[in-house]
Amino acid sequence: MTHGSWARFGQQQTPYVDFMEGIYRYRFQGTIFEEREGFLSSSDVGASFHYNLAKNYGDIHAGVYNGETYSAPEINDQKGWMIRGTLRPLPMSEYLRGLRITGFYDHDMFAKNDDRKRAILSVTYEHKYVNAGYDYLDGQNRLNRAAPESDAKGYTIWVTPRTTIGWEGLFRFDHIDPNKSAPAQQRERTIAGVAYWFPHQGNVSTALLFDYDNATFTGFTPSLPTRRLYAVHALLNF
Known about the structure:
CATH superfamily: Porin
Strand content: over 45%
Structural class: mainly beta
Radius of gyration: 19 Å
Distance between the termini: 29 Å
Number of domains: 1
Order of helices and strands: EHHEEEEEEEEEEE
CATH class: Mainly Beta
Strand order of the largest sheet: 1-2-3-4-5-6-7-8-9-10-11-12
CATH architecture: Beta Barrel
Oligomer: single chain
């Protein structure tokens, strides 16, 4: 197999969240859009296979998981099937080799015939001076046979401009319609911050982030107030 290919069994990271956090790098501020809105989890128990395409053209990661995530035991015999495929169209280009196009699909069930589906289309870009990304999410839930199916649509766009001396910005906007059959309901989140990444000490990464996190909720009954947070976050990764 190509270098970087592997198989894993047991509790492990799921295909999409771990991949995206390698580009976004700000889990210490908060989880990525799809996980924060409750559509995906970072880890679960299962078996998966990862394959790197030759000549750095991308990779494929597919697996079968319990579906209850790392935080709960398995409750039935239904499994979650996940696959992520990523294409790097111009791996030899000096300026465009950081461009990647990713598709992800997750088919799970709350119980037999009660579907829980997620589909994501993502475009990301990595460069010495900036990382950026855009995700479009389509999520469908049917909690039980008697309940109507909900159809969620949403997107996130983010950019992290940076310098060569450790300073970096964080700008992100999330939008979600939890159910298109109730289009008046919307959640939106705006994140803005300034980070300083200290020089590496061996394999240790250290950063400080001051950020503003503003979440608004429209059309919910009872109404929900705007949630506004100011915070200082620290990262020590070793």
